[in-house]
Structures are given as C-alpha cells and as structure tokens.
Amino acid sequence: MASIIKLYGDFFSPFTIICLFTLHEKGLSFEYVDVKLFSHETKRDLMNAKHPFGKVPILEDIDADGNMTKICGSRTHSRAISRWLAVKYASEGTALLPNFEDYKAVAQFEEAACFESSYLAASSITYLKQKVVHPKIGVPVYPEAIEESLRQVKGNLQVFDRILSARQYLTGNNFSLIDVWSAIFIYCLLETDPEFLQDLSSLASWWKGVSSRPAWQRTTAQIASRWEAMK
Q1: Is 219 part of a structural domain of the chain?
Q2: d(Cα 202, Cα 164) in Å, to the nearest integer?
Q3: Is residue 120 part of a domain?
Q4: pLDDT for the residue numbered 49
Q5: Helical H runs in the chain?
Q6: Per-residue pLDDT tens for 92-121?
C-alpha cells in the first residue's frame, strides 16, 4: 500500500501553497483538507486536535505499515514539510535538494535558503499583511508603514535580481526547494501590482520559467477561486 498523505491548510496561506507546490513537483497523490483561516476554524476542535497552536499547514503522512508522521506548520515549518517530502520521496518527481555529497552545492543551497527566509519572505510578508490582509480583517492601515515595507521589498528584490543575473535558479542551474519557497511571494506581490518586476529583468526571467512549470500551473489552478474570493 502506498503512503496516504493529507495536507490541512487554507489556500490564502502562502505556507499552505508552499506545501501544495512541493507536492505537485513531486507528483504525489494527496488529500487536501480545507481549513478557512478567517472563519476561526483553526482554533476549533479539528485543528486544536492537530496542532497545539491551531496553525496551518499540517501534513500527515501514513506509510504502508500504518505509521503516521505529522508535521505541524507555520511560517518556518512549511519549509520543514517540503523538506520532508523532498527527502522521503527523493526518487519521485522533481529532485528538489542538492546532492548531499557535493558540499559546495549544499552550502549554496543553505545560503539561498537563508536569503529567501530572511529577506524575500520576511519583507514580503510584512508588506502583504499591511497592504492586503489588514484591510480585510479591519486592522488599521498606516500608509507610511506600507510605503516603508514596500521600500524594503523592492530593495530586496533588486538583490535577488542581481543574484539571478548569474544563474538560472536561486541555487544555481537546477530548480530546487528554494525556488518552490520563493514562488508564492512573487506571485502575491504581482497580485498587488502586475508591474512589480518591471526593470528586474533577471528576476522576471526566473519568474517566467517558474510560473510556466506544470506543477505551478496545477497549484494556481487550485488556489484561483480562493484568491478571487478575497479580492
């Protein structure tokens, strides 16, 4: 019997989408359990039983012997979920991790992982919360805070553009988990402004390649209705 994989999440959560994109890149069959963040369902019985803090995403992976591995998600743990999938299912779908015997490749991967988390994700999340999420949930919006977070995002994107001027993907010439993790933030930024990558030719070229991948196409097809409802 093959493993049974369940992903609990909300398509409005970028961390759920990171896991979803990973699953599609690996070509894995899975069950998706929708949990609406803004209905506070995450704080009620189902999610409290799954995650002590009522967060999503959550991955459950039950192997052929009935042994279950559960990884509880949040901002950083969505990356733990995707790493789990990339390691356990290394022989399936797209290879998303470097050869661990290639020390240089591993170092470059971990460096890129730090850049993604500390700069791209961190600044994008701050900006998107202020620009998109806070108005939706009635939190006061401060234009000066939005402008400052936008300035930080644009500055970080310029650095990523320079990095990508010398390589095809964020860790080198091979698509990896770093590209998976980064994709949703570029997608979200472009949803707020289609001109976000203007004058960032290397980053725009990277995005054209990533967004044309079949796994990303399947991912965006799944999340489209949820994102449309939030507009």
Answers
A1: no
A2: 6
A3: yes
A4: 63
A5: 14-26, 45-50, 77-88, 103-115, 122-128, 134-137, 143-164, 177-192, 201-211, 214-230
A6: 999 999 999 999 999 999 999 999 999 999
Distance between CA atoms of 169 and 163, rounded to whole angstroms?
Answer: 9
| pTM of the complete model | 0.91
CA dihedral 63, 65, 66, 70 (to 10 degrees): -40
| Tokens encoding 207 | 């995005």
Residue 94 included in any domain: no
Residue 51 lies in a domain: yes
- The 10s digit of each residue's pLDDT in 35-65 is 876 666 555 656 566 665 667 798 999 887 7
Average pLDDT over residues 188-209: 96
Domain that holds residue 139: 103-213
In a shared domain, residues 156 and 83: no
Q: Indicate whether 77 and 160 sit together in one domain.
A: no
Domain CATH for 67: 3.40.30.10
